[in-house]
Amino acid sequence: METILKKVDIDNIDKADFSDAASILRADGLVAFPTETVYGLGANALSPLAASKIYAAKGRPSDNPLIVHIADKKDIYELSNNVTDKAVALAKAFWPGPLTIILEKSEIVPMTTTGGLDTVAIRMPNHKVALKLIKEAGVYIAAPSANTSGKPSPTSAAHVYEDMNGRIDMIIDGGSGDIGLESTIVDLSDEVPMILRPGCITKEMLEEVIGTVEVDKAILGIDNSAKPKAPGMKYKHYAPKGELAIVEGDVAKVIAYINEKAAANEKEDLKTAVLATSENVFAYEADYVYDLGSRENEDAVARHLYAALRRCDELDMDYIYAESFENQAVGQAIMNRLIKAAGHNIIRL
Ligand code: AMP
Ligand code: MG
Fold first, then answer.
1. Closest to 150 in 3D by CA, of 343, 348, 346
2. Would you call 65 helix, strand, or coil by DSSP?
3. Å from CA of 91 to ligand 1 middle
4. For position 223, what pLDDT does the model report?
5. Kind of pairing between the strands at 243-248 and 31-33
6. Shortest CA distance to 242 belongs to which of 262, 222, 263?
7. Which strand ranges, in their side-by-side order, compose the sheet holding 288-291?
8. Which of 35, 64, 141, 236 to mutate to test the pocket of ligand 1 (most atoms within 8 A of CB)?
9. Would residue 116 be called left, alpha or beta, if left means φ above 0 and alpha means ψ between -120 and 50 degrees?
10. What does the DSSP assignment read for 219-250?
11. pLDDT tens per residue across span 211-263
12. Is any atom of ligand 1 closer than 6 Å to the C-beta of 121?
């Protein structure tokens, strides 16, 4: 299959830009598109055939449900017959935006889309291209991250091209979004709301709107054996090819440890990369040091994380050492992704 690349100027969006993409989606094809979080791999969410193509293109396990993207808040009433007051309050407060809400599904949502679950994950993205595309297509769009299953999520059209060229009908290039990490997922289908995946909308932000919110213990990386409630969170994910370790502890010790490892690796002819915060980049001696951004600005770190992991692969790094982050607010989302990318390989000094 030939993958069409379509560039869109997001400051100058024209309805006509989306007519081909909309036709592809209505005909059960696959179109990758930018959102404010990461690039999504879109297909008609209400068509089992279209949804099944997503799983095939990504190599995604079929029990890992897809998020359904909408362009109008009231669409939520079509996808669920049990829209709770809390769901309405969260949609009002955070949509369009990086929050996915899980509710009991209505009969129109096929089990192929929900990975066999009775619940459906719904999000209204805050991105002009995504919203316009959903509207023009006239269908709800199931869209997981547009990467090969297991790899870091794509934050640019080039990343999507690397993974999906020849496997999907079209890639819409609308530049990079400003968040860079996947949405926060909150499950409202049970009594107590529960965060199944941390993101840049934090527990505290949700609690301001709906009161007590719990966090699925399995996602915090503390208990390695706990089974996560979001099926996707149990799979290895975001992983670079090089061996990634998170190094935790006193800054000076972290720097000394990583530099020592880099020197030892060099003797073995192995290449070492460091994912560092701006405060420390100059202290490392390694083959490649990626500046993730300042510790004072975790949003920037979140935005750069996946590009950093992919860059290490492009440069064939054998070992990658990442600094660690506070397990709270956006730091919690960063640590959640890093821990999964590292396969729980954390070095505590
Ligand atoms: P992605 O689309 O790649 O960002 O992944 C979507 C994430 O949402 C995966 O971790 C899924 O397991 C999770 N998810 C989607 N739908 C549901 C649902 N109905 N219940 C629980 N988790 C869900
Ligand atoms: Mg994903």
1. 343
2. coil
3. 18
4. 61
5. unpaired
6. 262
7. 288-291, 272-276, 319-323, 243-248, 346-348
8. 64
9. left
10. GGTS-TTSPPSSGGGGS--S--SSEEEEEES-
11. 999 999 887 665 666 777 888 777 777 889 999 999 999 999 999 999 999 99
12. yes
Per-chain residues with Cβ under 5 A from ion ligand 2: 145
Banded pLDDT at 105 (limits 50, 70, 90)? very high
The structure's pTM equals: 0.95
The pLDDT mean for the chain works out to: 95
- Tell me if the bond preceding 152 is cis, omega within 30° of 0: no
Token digits of residue 193: 């709301």
Q: Residue 197: beta bridge partners?
A: 185
Give the angle subtended at the CA of 51 by the CAs of 47 and 57, to the nearest 5°. 150
Which two tokens mark 296?
């004072």
Residue 162's Cβ-count burial label (10 Å; 0-12, 13-18, 19+) is middle
273 C-alpha to center of ligand 2: Å? 24
**Percentage of residues in the chain having pLDDT higher than 90:** 88
Q: Could you give the angle at the alpha carbon of 44 between the alpha carbons of 232 and 168, nearest 5°?
A: 75
Burial class for 244, CB neighbours closer than 10 Å (0-12, 13-18, 19+): buried
- Please provide residue 286's backbone torsions phi and psi, each rounded to the nearest 5 degrees: -145, 175
Distance CA 260, CA 66 (A): 43
Ligand 2 centre and the CA of 56: distance in Å? 14
Higher-pLDDT residue of 227 and 341 is 341
